[in-house]
Amino acid sequence: MKVLSIKEPYATLIKEGKKLIETRSRKISYRGELYIHASSTSTLNQWKENKELTKLVNDTSLNFGNIICKCDLVDCIYITKEYIENIKKNNYQEYICGIYEEGRYAWVLANITSLEKPIKAKGQLNIWNYYNDLEVMNLMEDIEYGWLDKNNKSHNLVNKSFANNYILQSPHEVIMNKIGVCWDQVELERYYLKTNDWNIKTYFIVHYDNDKCPTHTFLTYENNGKFYWFEHSWEIFRGIHEYNTQKDLLLDVKNKFIKHELNNKFDSENLLLYEYKKPKYHISVQEFYNHCTNGKYIDFNTL
């Protein structure tokens, strides 16, 4: 869904049909369905000094940090002196709900419908996209497992050349190239889910041996008291898996990794798990290992 973040109380005034024009400093060509997100921040000090606006808001319950309604963006009008005079004279309520200055633009909204259940989300600048987890899984279906080398050549198998020729793609590159190993795919998942107000974490599990040091990266999130393992690149476990605790989740991934990637042959001292933050893009295999292992070490024995 396409979303526009607006500070309170103006977002809620739109939801209630008291404000049908959003004034902005730039022109927009988009027309169509648009969801309104009430920003986490407010113009509190400004609007409370405006007695007319305060009266309009009255005891209305505000909706900080939530997507609260949908509407249609139907027009974008250049604001002239005459336009301002007309709004002030014929629609004073609209006038006090915006910044009407020559050279700005009036984004005209229609068909406003409140959401039965607001969606907790992080706001973004301009119009942005919100995806829920099922939508992201559908988007990930376009991505094939594999990797790109330094010459932008694609490979379906992780072979001996991987260690010296792989580079981590950016999310936009993964979308464009439609290929990525779990390291790349997790960054695309992180990108798609970034506006969700969930506790999103990413993990790197590795078993150090004298051969190939198998690894897997995966993304988890917490929502409504449940914990979820979001998995696309590991095909046999592709899906969204629900758990009661983060401990249950991590131990399940560990056990599956031991069975299906290590064939139950492993040294517990060499099986390590790290929580890691978003890395820089275009880094090498060794740089990615270093980034992840410089993250937060998770001791399986003390989970």
Short description:
With 303 residues, this protein is of the alpha+beta class. The protein has two domains: 128 residues, Archaeosine Trna-guanine Transglycosylase, Chain: A, domain 4; 170 residues, no CATH class. Helices cover 28% and strands 31% of the residues.
Could you describe the 3D structure shown?
The protein is of the alpha+beta class and 303 residues long. The chain folds into two domains: 128 residues, Roll (Archaeosine Trna-guanine Transglycosylase, Chain: A, domain 4); 170 residues, no CATH class. The chain contains eleven helices and 14 strands. The strands form three sheets. The chain has a six-stranded mixed β-sheet with strand order 2-5-4-3-1-6. A six-stranded antiparallel β-sheet has the order 12-11-10-9-13-14, sandwiched between helices. Helix 8 packs across helix 9. The radius of gyration is 24 Å and the shape is elongated. The chain starts with a strand and ends in a 5-residue tail after the last strand.
